[in-house]
């Protein structure tokens, strides 16, 4: 029988009390948790979390007895701690003092491996029960055949385990049981400490039990000669403590060996303190000599560069002079724990001396400031961070692979995934957790589902050949992350995807839902609610009028909201925003866009990301939230959810993205044409509360599409097939991604499932804008738009052309009548400093009476509004003219094209005017209210579009 099994019956579990020594609550809980965990025969490591000073070493030493171990390897972070554990285990001093063993108990045979393993050590190691080693030596031992001798590996200060050396030790010794001990189960680099947290003793309980003592922060006001002031204050406190009978000692903490040398000289010159300097440049023997002098109380303290942190036990160290703070929470807690020990006589409150210069912020706390309540802050930071780590591990245990099997060590660790906070948000009517990611995600079997969180994680590997290679060999490999999370409370679906086209998001949503809708901006806008101190980094404003000039304005920089004024609020609607603010006392970043997306600059673990989604989702769904940023961003109107189509819809046009990059018409499934979608004619056929029907005509093909109130588009018999990039889609499918924009006569804009109301009171029809043309004088047939003369009467186009050619004010005249036209006639006038373009849109009278038939003005006003897109810039107009001329349109009636081209390339002020030519409109007769609404809305829209200075109507007397 092995040593530990033999001695098991000698173990006792006395409880520590005022009258007798024994095991503390923390030690009792940890020991029994280890025993319980070992009965489950889990392959994973057990992690024990105990505050510094709570007796972790005693638990580590009892573990082999509890598990009846054969041979134990103890890995410690430093030579100094290795020596301490060797000495303690060699005589069972700590366990005998706690009355776990009687004084005559025989200790185990123990070997301190001080050098890399060689065969010379084999016989010695075979003869002992315990080997204590630092990581390099332990690694060398684990890399040879002797690793099979060990059935238990104990890791002290286990937050180092994610480091490669420590990881390899555990991998090499995978047949042994692993138990990891730490006070801080988290790291600055956020790497996972793999294993199950089987026991956590909170710091608050350690404080109540008297294990973690009182701590105080001594603030020095910010000033020059920082190091000198800290040194003087350290000396003052040290001498005062000694005068009060406290047996206290000092540690001077800095971050570099060079700084330590400087501080040694400074303390010698400015104080009477007897100090020794310890850093990694010294031999272990020298360092050990100085430590012995400290414990023998022959010196007053030490100047240290991270040499006496983890595992160092000298409870009389009670004063810390902090010249250079630690940079991580784990290191700070470890450091503070060394001074908060209570297991010594004649000791009082631990004191930390640092300058109040706000040098360090940890977990959003400015620790080194005068008003920092250290006792509360340190306990809260420790417990909150440990609890978060426990919660993450517990949460990730709920994930299973796509085939239903639990996660194993040979698959990717979900703990290693840290997505940036970004999500496309949908409102859905049903969630299918067993959905399968679309094929383009290349996920395969790497799917992980959690029914507890209603979350599915997919990891894709997309392979392709590089663009610079002509071979079929796959060289480019891209790893892709997808997360689908359903918040049942709000019926919201959050989709995280590294493939971010609308079609990709839609396909992923379709795979996991029954039905879905994007979230309108007024609801997405609520993610900005319940915060304070907003500062906008980036804002976007979407023009509520034509695409002429700026269709989307972006401000970027610091405090960009100040650039928004009330006038901008009337011209634009909120597009996107990204800002920082304070939420629940913490700084956060948050942004949203019109595409139903939300994002932050933060990277989080999967469970934390889900919490982030849920917290944003509760805001989005909360109708009671009213966002008030107290910045100029509040001037921006926010589009709202469309609940019913208004009766006053009078016009529709394609989205800005369609005009920027229009898809082309396919003649057949394989044969593309040169016809672009923006050449199509759009006619509103009917308007109901829940839908609008639009007739789309393009190159002899006609689709009647239905735009539904939820933002979706459908078509019973689609015929218009488009090629958009690589994709071939029917028109209605394309419009689901790039919805039509509808305009009302009272200045509302509808896009998808959103409506943005404007300023209806500003829309006024002025009858003076109608110019009377004496059509009979020119022998005009006002009921015929174009074609041949009939009975001596000329069609309107012929008369208009004669009138325009008789006008010497402009240099060029183009005739562009036909499908996809810019306008029927286009005149261009060049002067010394300006270029003026006038577009003439013509329609014949079809009604029986003047001002009697609304259809006389509907089509021509829509053409006029649509044409504003071609007046965005001189270059836009020129490119469109060139495109039309290729299709044998845009015939020059005056001037030469090469000269026109040169004119439109001149860097001169570019202005435009639009003329509606419709003889059915009579200036002298009463104009019906509906006529006035349409004409006033058209005029208001065009005049506010930016480039166009005037809308003129050529009618009749």
List the helices and strands and how they pair.
Blueprint: H1 3-7, H2 25-39, E1 46-49, H3 56-66, E2 72-75, H4 79-91, H5 93-97, E3 110-113, H6 122-126, E4 130-133, H7 135-142, E5 152-156, H8 164-172, E6 177-182, E7 196-200, H9 203-208, E8 215-221, H10 226-243, E9 249-253, H11 257-270, E10 275-278, H12 284-295, E11 301-304, E12 317-322, H13 329-339, E13 350-356, E14 361-362, E15 365-366, H14 374-396, E16 400-401, E17 420-428, E18 447-450, E19 455-464, E20 476-487, E21 492-497, H15 502-512, E22 516-518, H16 521-524, E23 532-543, E24 552-556, H17 566-571, E25 572-583, E26 586-593, E27 597-603, H18 606-620, E28 640-641, E29 649-653, H19 656-660, E30 664-666, E31 672-676, E32 681-687, E33 691-698, E34 701-708, E35 713-714, E36 721-724, E37 727-730, H20 731-737, E38 741-744, E39 749-751, E40 754-756, E41 770-772, E42 780-781, E43 794-795, H21 796-805, E44 812-815, E45 825-830, E46 834-842, H22 855-866, H23 874-886, E47 891-894, H24 897-904, E48 909-922, H25 929-943, E49 948-956
Parallel strand pairs: 1-6, 1-7, 2-4, 2-5, 3-4, 5-6, 8-13, 9-11, 9-12, 10-11, 12-13, 41-49, 42-43, 46-48, 48-49
Antiparallel strand pairs: 14-15, 16-18, 17-21, 17-22, 17-27, 18-19, 19-20, 20-21, 23-24, 23-25, 25-26, 26-27, 28-40, 29-38, 30-31, 30-36, 32-33, 33-34, 34-35, 36-37, 38-39, 39-40, 44-45, 44-47, 45-46
């Amino acid at each position: 029988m092995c040593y530990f099994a033999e001695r098991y019956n000698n173990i006792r579990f006395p409880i520590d009390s005022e009258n007798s020594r024994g095991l503390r609550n923390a030690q009792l809980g940890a020991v029994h948790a280890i025993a319980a965990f070992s009965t489950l025969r889990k392959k994973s490591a057990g992690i024990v979390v105990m505050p510094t000073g709570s007796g972790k070493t005693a638990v580590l030493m009892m573990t082999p007895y509890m598990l009846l171990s054969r041979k134990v390897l103890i890995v410690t972070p430093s030579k100094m701690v290795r020596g301490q554990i060797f000495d303690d285990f060699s005589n069972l001093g700590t366990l005998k003092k706690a009355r776990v063993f009687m004084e005559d108990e025989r200790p185990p045979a123990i070997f301190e491996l001080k050098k890399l393993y060689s065969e010379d050590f084999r016989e010695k190691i075979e003869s002992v029960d315990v080997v204590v080693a630092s990581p390099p030596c332990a690694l060398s031992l684990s890399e040879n055949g002797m690793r099979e001798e060990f059935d238990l590996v104990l890791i002290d200060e286990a937050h180092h385990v994610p480091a490669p050396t420590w990881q390899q030790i555990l991998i090499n010794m995978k047949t042994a049981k692993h138990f990891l001990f730490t006070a801080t189960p988290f790291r600055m680099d956020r790497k996972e400490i793999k294993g199950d947290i089987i026991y956590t003793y909170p710091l608050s309980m350690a404080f109540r039990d008297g294990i973690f003592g009182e701590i105080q922060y001594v603030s020095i006001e910010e000033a020059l000669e920082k190091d000198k002031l800290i040194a003087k204050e350290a000396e003052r406190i040290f001498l005062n403590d000694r005068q009060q009978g406290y047996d206290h000692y000092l540690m001077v903490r800095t971050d570099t060996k060079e700084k330590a040398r400087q501080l040694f000289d400074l303390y010698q010159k400015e104080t009477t303190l007897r100090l020794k300097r310890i850093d990694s440049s010294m031999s272990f023997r020298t360092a050990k000599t100085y430590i012995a002098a400290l414990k023998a109380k022959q010196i007053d303290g030490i100047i240290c560069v991270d040499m006496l942190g983890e595992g160092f036990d000298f409870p009389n160290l009670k004063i810390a002079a902090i010249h250079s703070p630690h940079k991580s929470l784990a290191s700070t807690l470890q450091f503070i724990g060394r001074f908060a020990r209570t297991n010594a006589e004649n000791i009082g409150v631990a004191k930390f001396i640092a300058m109040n210069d706000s040098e360090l912020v940890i977990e959003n706390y400015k620790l080194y400031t005068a008003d920092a309540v250290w006792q509360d802050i340190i306990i809260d930071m420790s417990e909150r961070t440990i609890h978060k780590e426990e919660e993450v591990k517990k949460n990730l245990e709920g994930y299973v692979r796509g085939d239903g099997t639990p996660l194993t060590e040979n698959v990717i660790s979900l703990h290693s995934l840290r997505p940036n906070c970004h999500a496309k948000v949908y409102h859905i009517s049903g969630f299918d957790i067993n959905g399968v990611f679309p094929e383009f995600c290349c996920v395969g079997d790497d799917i992980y589902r959690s029914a507890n969180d209603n979350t599915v994680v997919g990891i894709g590997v997309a392979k392709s050949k590089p663009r610079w290679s002509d071979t079929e060999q796959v060289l480019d490999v891209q790893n892709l992350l997808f997360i689908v999370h359903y918040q049942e409370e709000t019926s919201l679906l959050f989709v995280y995807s590294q493939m971010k086209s609308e079609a990709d998001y839609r396909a992923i949503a379709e795979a996991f839902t029954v039905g879905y809708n994007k979230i309108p901006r007024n609801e997405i806008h609520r993610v900005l609610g319940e915060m304070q101190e907003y500062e906008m980094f980036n804002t976007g404003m979407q023009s509520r009028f034509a695409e002429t000039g700026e269709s989307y304005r972006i401000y970027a920089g610091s405090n960009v909201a100040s650039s928004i004024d009330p006038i901008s609020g009337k011209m634009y609607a909120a597009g996107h925003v990204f800002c920082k603010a304070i939420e629940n006392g913490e700084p956060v970043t948050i942004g949203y866009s019109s595409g139903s997306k939300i994002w932050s600059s933060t990277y989080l673990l999967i469970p934390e990301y889900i919490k982030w989604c849920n917290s944003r989702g509760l805001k989005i769904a909360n109708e009671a939230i009213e966002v008030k940023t107290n910045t100029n961003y509040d001037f921006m109107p926010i589009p709202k959810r469309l609940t019913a189509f208004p009766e006053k819809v009078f016009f529709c046009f394609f989205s800005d993205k369609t005009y920027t990059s229009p898809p082309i018409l396919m003649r057949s499934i394989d044969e593309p044409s040169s016809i672009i979608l923006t050449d199509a004619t759009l006619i509103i056929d009917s308007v109901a509360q829940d839908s609008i029907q639009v007739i789309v005509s393009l190159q002899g093909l006609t689709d009647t599409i239905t735009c539904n109130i939820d933002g979706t588009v459908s078509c019973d018999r689609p015929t218009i097939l488009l090629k958009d990039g690589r994709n071939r889609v029917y028109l209605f499918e394309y419009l689901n991604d790039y919805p039509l924009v509808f305009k009302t006569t009272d200045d509302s804009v509808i896009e998808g499932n959103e409506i943005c109301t404007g300023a209806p009171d500003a829309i006024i029809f002025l009858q003076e804008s109608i110019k009377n043309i004496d059509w009979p004088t020119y022998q005009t047939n006002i009921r015929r738009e174009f074609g041949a003369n009939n009975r001596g009467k000329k069609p309107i186009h012929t008369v208009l052309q004669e009138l325009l050619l008789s006008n010497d004010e402009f240099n060029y005249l183009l005739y562009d009548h036909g499908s996809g036209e810019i306008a029927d006639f286009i005149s261009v006038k060049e002067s010394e400093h300006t270029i003026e373009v006038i577009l003439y849109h013509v329609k014949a009278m079809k009604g029986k009476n003047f001002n009697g038939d609304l259809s006389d003005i509907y089509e021509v006003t829509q053409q006029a509004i649509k044409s504003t897109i071609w007046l965005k810039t001189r270059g836009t107009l020129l490119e469109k003219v060139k495109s039309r001329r290729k299709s044998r349109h845009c015939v020059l009636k005056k001037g030469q094209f090469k000269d026109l081209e040169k004119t439109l390339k001149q860097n001169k002020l570019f202005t435009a005017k639009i003329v509606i030519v419709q003889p059915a409109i009579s200036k002298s007769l009463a104009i019906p209210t509906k006529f006035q609404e349409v004409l006033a809305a058209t005029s208001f829209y065009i005049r506010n579009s930016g480039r166009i200075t005037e809308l003129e109507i050529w009618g009749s007397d």
